[in-house]
Amino acid sequence: MSANVILVVFDTARADAFEPYGAPAGATPAIAELARRGAAHPRAFANASWTVPSHASMLSGQLPRSAGFQHRGDTKAASYVEANRRLVAAGQSLPEVMRRAGFDTFGVSGNTWISDHGGFDQGFDRFEVVTHRRQARLHKTGLRDRVAWRVDAVRAQLDDGADAVSDALDGWLAQRAHNPFFLFVNLIECHSPYLPPKPFNPLGPVDRWRSAAEASRYLNVESIWRCSLGGFDVPDDAIARMRELHAASASQLDAWLARLLSALDRHGLVDETQIVLTSDHGENLGDGQLLGHAFSLDNRLIRVPLVTAGPATLATDGVMSLTRLPRFIAESAGIDDHPFDDGLPDGVAVAQLDAPGDGDHARCVSVTSAWGLGPDAATRMGTSVVCATDGRFKLLRPQGTGARAAGLPEELLIDVDADPLEVAPTTPTAVDDATLATLRRALDIAAESERPKTPVPSSAPAEDEALAEQLRHLGYL
């Protein structure tokens, strides 16, 4: 009998926000129990440090550039729609593979990118996007909007769509046909501005007011980029509140998971359902003078939780790349005839970062100069990076206009045990030859598998300004 599968992505959730990965006992009891029933992989790695390319990998089994999800110098959604269409048509998209195998497929998302806007609805029989109004006033400059935003934060009654996602799943489970199913969920509660509702919000009214003001000031794309390029100016007490609220948001999502597990139990589906919980990337909360998830492939961003329980058993030795997640899901569901093989050596994960300024170093210099930053900031803004990691050592290859302008070495090495903040890369001499050869081989395979950037079709509709506004609220544009 085929097993049902539920893939839950806690968007922007750091691994260390959850009990199997270092959070204090009682912080996330439902996830801890899920890990006890199944497994929590200790060394799971995403393949990108932001939403779209990471989801492309976990739903196709390919590295972002191999799947056609390069985004150097732009964030046009039409290219992602085209890339997803090609994957679905080629039978290389997980929801399409599940659907062709006879599974009912349903997706629900609270993230604007993970929707028809990015082409991620394709391959699903049904896909719902939950809209949430809390962030609508986040970056507005009018006095009325600013006051309303802070009042909403003080009241702490609004979420980012978690309740609405639960309602959608409850409705689908109650009405579903009795076929095996594949459910996909994206929840964005751990994404900035990290303002969970009561009873999860641990702050008092004054600090909730302060946190709302700090979100407006620091958690916008310009501030996140400036901070992460050398202009870090966030006060320690603001960082402390962000950390506390991010952890509280993880507890909120743990309660959401408990509700899902209860619903499955009511429908008698627990024993025949593989539940897979992960994140697309983590978040920097002042670590190494970084904020958000930009310009870095450090472990706070690419090391992610991966917890699963159900009929199938997840091996937890070595390193687990999320490019291998579709293979595990398909085989958990009893599908052996699938296309999922990333071609990478065992025990290694690869991640890719495409710089937003790549291709126009002059623009990088202009933007960073306007922020009062020097040439190092322009270099970093124009530097793309690919890394391979075995869990301890990370080999990086800087690429792009910034790397060329600065004359960066072709390869850099980080020993994460010795340099946990990953701020002092060296030349790759402090690692044995066999490890270095394996990491280089993974990077070579990744480079050989890259596709050209997916072109935007001439008939593509213009970008929807309302959707663009939502993406700006999330710090993407």
How are the SSEs ordered, and which strands pair?
Elements: E1 4-10, H1 29-37, E2 39-40, E3 44-45, H2 51-60, H3 77-89, H4 94-100, E4 104-109, E5 126-129, H5 143-155, H6 162-175, E6 181-187, H7 205-218, H8 221-231, H9 236-266, E7 273-278, E8 284-285, E9 291-292, H10 299-302, E10 303-304, E11 306-309, E12 320-321, H11 325-332, E13 349-353, H12 361-370, H13 375-381, E14 384-389, E15 393-399, H14 400-406, E16 412-415, H15 433-448, H16 465-473
Parallel strand pairs: 1-6, 1-7, 3-12, 4-5, 4-6
Antiparallel strand pairs: 2-11, 3-10, 7-11, 8-9, 13-14, 14-15, 15-16
What does this structure look like?
This protein is of the alpha/beta class. The protein is 38% helix and 14% strand. It has helices spanning 29-37, 51-60, 77-89, 94-100, 143-155, 162-175, 205-218, 221-231, 236-266, 299-302, 325-332, 361-370, 375-381, 400-406, 433-448, 465-473; strands at residues 4-10, 39-40, 44-45, 104-109, 126-129, 181-187, 273-278, 284-285, 291-292, 303-304, 306-309, 320-321, 349-353, 384-389, 393-399, 412-415. The strands form four sheets. The chain has a seven-stranded mixed beta sheet, with helices on both faces. A hairpin with a 3-residue loop joins β14 (384-389) and β15. α6 runs parallel beside α9 and α13 runs antiparallel to α14 (400-406). The longest helix has 31 residues, at 236-266.
